Amino acid sequence: MELGSSILENISVAGDAAHISDKAFISLVQAACQGVLLEEHRNAVAENPAFKDTDKAILKEAYSGLVTLILEAAKHDSSEQNISSVLEDCKFTTDRISSFAKEFLPQKPHVQLLLGKISSSFPHIVDVDWRLDYYIKNNHLEKVNSAVYLISLKTEVPGSNDIQEVQFSCSLEQLQDLVGKLKDATKCMEKLTQG
Amino acid sequence: MEEVDRIIVHSLRSIGCDIEEDVQSLRQFSTELIVATVARCLKVISSDLELPSSLPPGMSARFRVGASLANHVQDLGYKGGDLGYQTFLYSNETEIRKIFMFLVEKLPKESSQTADEPLGASVLLHRAICTELSNQLSASWTPTFMKDRGIRSRSKPPGWQREGACCLQYYHSCPTRTPVGTANLSIKLPRETRSYYTSKLPYVTNQTRVHRDTAPSVLEANTLEVAVQQEWETEWNSVGLASRLTQQEFKRRKRERLLKLIRDRLQQDSQRQERGTGPSALNDLQQVMTSIEAQGKSGLSKTKGSRFAHTEKLQYAKDEEKTMAQMGTAAPQDTEEEQERKRQDEVDGLREELHKVTSDLEKLDLEVRKFTASQQQMDEVIMTEEKSAEEKKAAYTVKKRTLDLLPEAEANIGKLQAVVDSSAQRLVTLAKQWESHREPLIQQYRELRQLHSQRESEAEKKLEEIKVFRARMKESADEARRKEELQKQLVSEFERMTKDVNRSAYTRKILEIVANIKKQKQEIDKILVDTKSVQKEINSLSGKLDRTFTETDELVFKDAKRDESVKKAYRLLAALHENFESLIHTVEDTGVVTREIRDLEEQIESESSKKILSNLEKISEDLQQMKKENSGLIAKVKGK
């Protein structure tokens, strides 16, 4: 986990008991986690009565430092040890380090889920409907007699809540080819987990 | 032996031998298993060997496989008795154990090698990804409607994971602002900035337009800062320190250099393009160049340059507008020719008038210029005249004085002489004084110069030292980082390691065994000492016996010459001695025999452990089979 020097300075402001009292610090960490996670709490720190006596400029500086720390720690999946070594560099007391860890670590998976949302993806197949038709003849040919699969893939597309369908028809061989490809992909994933 | 077997079985499993779970000792190994594992071991030791991993059904083929295995093991340097096909096909436990111990020792020590070379952070990351992926793969499929916005909970390890693509968002960030240096008392913040920070600046999580952009924006800001710092650090370490400038100075020079470079490049390009493209592109280039030049000239440059460019642009725009307007007015004139001609005349008249006026204006301008030039000339003339007047006035006063002095020439000359003398003397004293002042000043100057040069060299030395320190600092930081990584990796390795081989238990057992061996050795030593003492005693006793016998022999022999009965006694004595001698011999013989018996018993035991009977049966069966195969083959040959 690497943090810029101005960020480190901001974090050490948050750890300085002369600027932010112990009680306010805990509330500040909570507010930072909530502010990152939930849209309705994005400005909660401004309305929190716990920070009545704190200088607002300093509060803003400390708050942004903590927000950056929380996001970076979640991004790197830092353990408590890593976080505490960073905080020690910022001259935190052990009490504050432990209270930060106590507030942040339960929230880490949530922050990671939030960060996991930032991505781009192909349409994601979640389900499939299929139908097997028997194609007997048409106006040119008296006898065709072949099987036709109608496949409808249900996909999730990034940025929309509805499930979208991808429809196509294929012959038996084509379907077998597709299934083979899918199996290959699964095997590839399994190989990756052993790597 | 059980321990040894377990270790052997474990290491065989670790190289990929297919040994069933309940097999714990070598006694449970079947012939097939032995051949398969030995072949596997040999393949691991030298990978280019071609060996069958299972026993073929034919007897002769089996014999060949056994013989080739024996050959390969002997090639590796096995020195434990005779080794042949029978060792593998008709195995006995002790020999097989010996061979496996030898092979396990020969196995390449992969684990120690991998531990030595440090794995980077990327490998650790890769491993973490692997475990996470396997966790996700092990979960069963759940339909989408069971997930809350693509998030499903899992029980092992407890937590949540994201699946599907329904709630993904693209990366989008905006710049964020944070207050800087509000708590630092050494930096004086302007009051306006502080009040902006206090009352107007929104909190970080509230700065982006959409809340979901907060995380990317904050992360981007941090990454940007880290990258800039790293870049600057490397540059300052490689080039900046050597230039012996302060950081600000260095930055300023770099900016100047860059601006100059850009300017030169643009000028070159514009010159090259002068022939190629039209004037419009050239105009643009010149605009850019002028703006850059304006930037280079002054510190406040940016706004100025842009304003300049702006006005220029405006001018061009105006010109265009004008032409557009002309075009516009030209259009309706086509309808009425009369009007057009009139207007044309009017325009011509006006134009002529304009020409006249402008030429007048020019003429007047010229005149004005001429007048101003002549005025300047006049001013100069006046100045020179005034100067000469002044000079003349000075000359006049000097001459007047000399004329005043003329009447009493002698006395005045004397006075003047005296004045001249005194002034000459004063000059000499002044020169002396100057000398006396000059000497120490020069001395001081020289000292200071020396001091300065010393200081300079010292500074250079210090700079050198700083460089060395910086390098060392970097080195140690690197070292620390590397060590940390190694430690992390070792910890992860340790966690990943299979815990079924209880290392501490083994070491404890080994220590116990060593202690046992020590105790046994002590006991052996004691017994050796005992036997030695017994031997000594025997020797001394036999010596005593010999001596007493010779003594009595002599005494009795002396008396025997005189007395007949004594003679008999002497004979009896001799017989007694002989009998005892034979008795001793017999005892010794019995000892030897018992020892032999023990040896033989041991041999019998060892032979019986070799499963000779069953092996013999097997061999005879195999022989039968072989004979059958041979006869079958012969029949086949004959049938052909």
TrEMBL record, chain A:
Pfam families assigned to the protein according to its UniProt record, in alphabetical order: COMM_domain (PF07258), COMM_HN (PF21672)
Domain COMM: 124-193
InterPro entries: COMM, COMMD3
Organism superkingdom: Eukaryota
UniProt record similarity statement: Belongs to the COMM domain-containing protein 3 family.
Protein name: COMM domain-containing protein 3
Automatic annotation (TrEMBL), chain B:
The organism's place on the tree of life at top rank: Eukaryota
Region called Disordered, residue ranges: 321-350
Protein family per UniProt: Belongs to the CCDC22 family.
Taxonomic source organism: Aplysia californica (California sea hare)
Entry annotated with the keyword Cell inner membrane: no
Pfam families associated with the record: CCDC22_CC, CCDC22_N
Lineage of the organism: Eukaryota, Metazoa, Spiralia, Lophotrochozoa, Mollusca
Name the UniProt record assigns to this protein: Coiled-coil domain-containing protein 22 homolog
Domain CCDC22 N-terminal: 1-108
